[in-house]
Amino acid sequence: MGNLYHNKIAQWIVYVVFFAALTIIPMTVSDSFLLNQLATYGVYGMLALSISLCWGFGGILNLGQGIAFGLGAYGMAMTMQMQSQSESNPIPPFMLNNSLDHLPLLWQPFQSTAVGLVLAVAVPTLFCAAFGGIMFRARVSGPFFAIMTLAMLSAFYTIILDRQAYTGGVNGLTPPSSFVFAGVEVDPYSPTAYWVVLCLLAGATFVAKLITQSSFGLVTQAIRDDSERVRFLGYSVAGYETVIYTVSGLIAALAGCCWVMLVQYVSPAQLDVGFSLSMVIWAAIGGRHSLLGSILGAFIIQGAQSYLGDAFLATWLLILGGFFIVVVRFLPNGLASLVESGLGLFDRQRPTSSPAPDGGRPMPAE
Amino acid sequence: MNITRRNILKTTLAASTAVALPHLWLPGSGEAWGATLKKGEPIKVGLLFSLTGSLAVPEEDSTLVMQYAIDEINKAGGVAGVPVEPVIVDAKSDFAVYSEKAKELILRDKVIAIFGCYTSASRKAILPTVMQRNHLLYYPTCYEGAECTQNTICTGPLANQHSKDLIPFMVGNFGKKVFFVGSNYVWPKESNKNAKIWLEQAGGELLGEEYIPLGSSEFGPVLNKIRDAKPDFIFSTVVGASDIAFHKQFKQEGFKVDDMPIASLTTGEIETRAMGAEFGAGHFLSAPYFQTLDNPTNHKFVEGFLASKYGKNGVTHYNMEETYISAYVFKAGFEKAAAEVGFENVTPRSIRDHSGGLVIEDAVSPEGQVWIDKDNFNTWLKPKIGQCQADGTFKVVKAAAEQVAPDPYSIYPDLGVCTANGLKAPDGSIRKNVI
Amino acid sequence: MDLGSLINALILGVSIASIWLIAALGLTIIYGTAGVINMAHGELIMLGAYSSYMLQFYLGLPYLLCLPVSFVIVALVGLALERGLIRYLYNRPLDTLLATYGVSLVLMQGVRLIFGSDPKYLAVPEIFQSNVMIGSVSLSVFRIVVLLVTALLVLALWLLFYKTRFGVQVRAVMQDKEMAASFGINSSRIYMLTFALGAGLAGVAGALFGVLAIVLPTMGASYVVQAFLMVVVGGGSLAGSVVASGVTGELQSVFAFFTNDTFARFIIFVLIVAFLRFRPQGLFAQAGARR
C-alpha cells in the first residue's frame, strides 16, 4: 500500500474520529462559555474549509471570502433583528435614529424567518456564482483574481459603512435576543447551538470531501496544476472554477449565519481585509491541500489567540506573523504535510515494487 | 468498516439527543450570574479594553486608570471592606474579540461587573451577551444615546449634554455661520442632530455637513468645501487618527485658527499631544474634564496618577477621568446594594438597581460633583469648554453653572422616555433592552 | 457649486493622485520586476515614517534630510527582507503574498513594541504649514512638496530604467530571466536591488505621509490595498501606475465633490473591478513580461 495519508479509507476514518470527538465534548463539559467558544471555532473551521476547497483544490486564492461570510451574516442578523420586532414595533431602533419611518424594501423579506434564512444563504451564493462566472470567463486567475476579490471586498465594506440607515454603519446590527427557529430558541450558550454548528460543519466537510474525491474534484485539481492543459483537453475551465468558487462561497455564507447565531452581532469588521486574510492564514497553516488540516488550522490559531494571547499579550501578533512566515517558507502545504511526510516514513520501509493501488491515477491532494 | 462507522454514528446520535434535549428549553435570560460572593474573597471585576491594535491609544489609558482607581480603593479599605481584583483582558481592537472576551469574563471568570469599551461598535458587540446574562456594563465614555438597556451605567456625556453650551458659546463669540464635519458613523451624526437644535436656538446658520470615512486621512475635498462655504467656525466630531490629520491639514491648507476655530467634541489632551500642540492651539473642546481643572480633587488625581506606576503616558484626559469615576460609581452602588440585600446576595443586577441617584461628591470626582440618573442611568455632569493653549493643555473658558440632565432620547420624543425598567413609549407600553 | 470650486476640486485631484502614486511607486517596481505581491508594503511605508521620527527625535535631523535617509534605512530593511525570505519564493507568487502578509504582522507589532501604540508626529519647517493662493485657487505648500517629490522620483526612475545600464539589465530580467542570465546578467542581484529600491521608495512615501496625517504602527494598513489596485490597474509598469493614480485621484476628488467621501471610494472600487474584468492585464502591460 502507498502512504497511509493518501488512503481514502484511512482518511474517512480520521474524519469520523475527529467529528466523533467533537460530538463527545458537550457530554463531558458543562462550561457554557467553552461550548460557545468551540462552536465559534467551528464556524471559523467552516471558513477555513471553504478556503481550502477553493484554494487548495481549485487553485483560486480568494482574499475576499469575507464577502460571502459577511453577506450571510448580515442576512442572518437582519432575520434575527426582525424576529425581535413586533407588529406594533416593526422598525429596528437604529433605523429610527436614521430618520426612516417605514421598513425599507430591502428589509421586508426578512420579516419572515424562513425567507430570511433562504436569502441569507442564497444572496451570497448567487453573488459568488455571478462574480466568479464573469471573472473566470474573462480568464482572470491567480494573483489577479486575488486582487479583484480584495477590491470587491473593499467595495462591500465601504458601502455597508456608508448606508447607515439600512445597515447600521460601523456599529453593525445587534439583534437583542436569541435566534428562534420553529418555536425553539437557540440559546447561543446551549449545546443546541453547538449541535447546529457541528452538524453544518460536518455536513459541509462531508460534501467537500465527496467533491474532492469525485471526478469533478480531480478536474479542478488538474486546473489548479495547469489550467491551459485542461482547457486544451476540452474542459470548460471557467465552468469548473465557477462551481468550486460558488460552493466555497455557500459554505462561507452558512458560516456567516452560524456566527451571528452565536455572537448575535455583525459589523463591517467582518468584511475587513484583515479578517479575510486570517481565513487564508488558517488554511495555509493547517494545510490548504487538506480539508481537515485547514479546519484544524482554524481551531489551533484561534485557540492559541484566545489562550496564549493574554499570556503573551504584546508578542502574540509577532509570534503569529513569524510562525506564518516559517510555515509559508518551509512548509508550503502547512502542518498537514508534516503528517504526510511522517506517514511516508513508514511507507518507505516497505518494498514498493507494485504500482500504487489506484493504478497511477493522479492522487487526490490528501 | 461501514458497520463500524454506522455504529459510531448511531451511538453518538443517540447520546447527543439524550444530552441535547434537556437543554433545549433552557431560558435565554434571567438571573444568570452563576456565582455568589464570599466574604474574604476579592470581588472580581473585568476590564475589557484594547491593549493592542488601533483602539489601543485611548483604551490602554482606560485600563491603566482603572487599575489606579482600584488600587486607590483597595488601599482605602476596598469595597464594602473587601478588596477588588481586576481581571484584565485585551480585546485587540477587534469587535469579535470584545464579544468573546465579554463572554469569558461573565461565564468563566464570573466577574460581577465589566468596565469596558470605547467605541459604540464594541459596546453594541457585547451588549447582547451582557443583557442576556443580566449582567452589568460600566461604559465610561461619551456616546450618542438612543439606547435604553437595563444593564449599563454610563459615566460620560450623552450627545444631548455634550454640545449644549459649546454651540451657543461659539455662535456668540465667533459668528452665526457653522460647518459640521464628522467621522462617518452614528455618534457624529447623532451629535450633529443635537447640535442643530442648539444652533437653531442660538440663531446660527448651518452651511454644510460632511462625513469622512473612519480612519481616512484625506481632508482635501472637505477643506475645499469649507473654503467655499466660508463659515465662522467649524463644529467637529471627527475621531481618532482622522482627527489629527484634520487638524494638521487645516493648518497646512492655510486656514487660520483666529478666523475659523474648530469646536470639537473629541480633540483632547491626548490628540493635541499626538498632532503637535501648534496644530491644536486656539481650538475649542467641550468636555466634562480637563487635566488643568483647578480643584483639590483634580490636583490629587493628576499628581497621584502621574506619579504612580500607571502614569507612564504622562497625561490625564476626559476619557480617563470618566473611567476613574466609574470605579467609584461601582463602589458606591455595590456598598448600597450590600447594605440592603446583604453582601452574599449582591448580583450585577442588584448593583445596578441600587445605583440610580448615586452622587459622586466633589471630594472624589475630579470634574466636580456628578450623579447617576435614576431613570436612564447616565450621568448628570457639567460640560466645560476649554481652549487649547500653545503647550497643548486646555484653559477652561466656560463651565456650565449646574449639572445638565442626560437624556438618551432627547431628539426622539416620539419613541418615548428611558426609565429604569425600559423604554416607556408615549402610549404607556414599556419595552426592555432597546438597542 | 461654481466653476472655481470645480477647478479647486480638479487641482486637489492632482494632489490626491500624487499621494496614491507615491504610495504605489515602490510596489510598482517590485511587482513589475519580480512579480512579487508585497503585502508588507504598507508596513514599509510605516517604517519610513518611523525612521523619520527617529532621525528627528534622536539626531535632530532637519525634515528634508529625513527623506533621503529614510529611503536608505527602509531600503536596507527591504534588502534584508529580500535576502532572508523573498528570494526563496520567486516562483511561488501566491506564497510571496502570504509570506509578506506575515512580515507585515511582524513589522507592525515589532514597531508597536518598540515605540508604543501612541501616535508620534513629525515636525516640519513653518513654510510647509501654509498655503499659497493663485487667484481663487488655494494650494497647500506641503501638497506641492509631495507632488514635486513624486514627480522627481518618477523622473529618476524613468531615467534609471531607460537610460542606464542597470535599467537595461532590469528590463532584460523582467522579460526573460533565463535569456538575461545567458548574457551574464545576475538576475538574483537585480531582484535584490529592485526590491531594496522599491522598499526605499515606500520609506520616502512614509516620511511624507507622516506629515500629512499621523505616525502610528497601523498607518500602513490603509495604503496597501489602494496601492495594489493602482499597480494592477496600471499593469505593473511605471507609466501605468502614473496614469492609474492620476485618473483615480481625479475621480475620487470629483466624486467626493459631488457626493461624499465614503461613497466616492465605493464607486472607485467598483470601477476598478469592472475595468480589470475587461483588461485584466492592466493599462500598459509590459510587452513580453513574464507572468
Automatic annotation (TrEMBL), chain A:
It is a multi-pass membrane protein. It is found in: Cell membrane. The chain crosses the membrane at residues 12-29, 41-60, 67-84, 114-136, 143-161, 193-211, 232-262, 274-299, 311-331. One of its GO terms (molecular function) is branched-chain amino acid transmembrane transporter activity. Keywords: Cell membrane, Membrane, Transmembrane, Transmembrane helix. It holds the Pfam family BPD_transp_2. Its main location: membrane. InterPro entries: ABC_transp_permease (IPR001851), ABC_transptr_urea_perm_UrtC (IPR017778), LivM-like (IPR043428). GO terms for cellular component: plasma membrane. This is Urea ABC transporter permease subunit UrtC. It comes from Ancylobacter mangrovi. The lineage of its organism: Bacteria, Pseudomonadati, Pseudomonadota, Alphaproteobacteria, Hyphomicrobiales.
From TrEMBL, chain B:
InterPro entries: AmiC_PBP1, Peripla_BP_I, TAT_signal. One of its GO terms (molecular function) is amide binding. This is Transporter substrate-binding domain-containing protein. It comes from Ancylobacter mangrovi.
UniProtKB/TrEMBL annotation, chain C:
Pfam families: BPD_transp_2. CDD domains: TM_PBP1_LivH_like. The chain crosses the membrane at residues 7-37, 57-81, 93-115, 141-161, 190-217, 223-247, 254-276. One of its GO terms (cellular component) is plasma membrane. The keyword Transmembrane applies. Belongs to the binding-protein-dependent transport system permease family. LivHM subfamily. This is Urea ABC transporter permease subunit UrtB. It comes from Ancylobacter mangrovi. The gene is urtB.
